[in-house]
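Methods, example record. To illustrate the input and output format used throughout this study, we show the complete record for Integration host factor subunit beta. The sequence lines were provided to the predictor; the line carrying structure tokens was produced by it.
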Amino acid sequence: MIKSELISLIAARNPHLYHADAEKIVDAVLDEITETLAQGGRVELRGFGVFSVRNRPPHSARNPRTGTSVFVEEKWVPFFRPGKEMQNRLNSPEPDAGVHAAGGRTFRVW
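The corresponding predicted structure is encoded as:
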């Protein structure tokens, strides 16, 4: 699912909202998550999961094309840990109409 599909789905499930309002809501939520992570914070959405940032220290690596050693600087990367409810829904044993297979991987449509 891409952002525009999410906006359309929210607008369809909430007929009292205009499409533009649904777009503003999605943008506001994503902007707030991004801003909190940029400040080094953590975002917990119960039943969904936790967004946080992790530090990757500087290290040396190899360029796979040339084999030369390169230095990789320290960086902060986003990290997502799914919540227990999401894990249970993804790993439920009962067949579900919301599960789709693509490229050898199975995806569940919420």
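Annotations derived from this record:
The chain is about 35% helix and 30% strand.
The chain has a mean pLDDT of 88.
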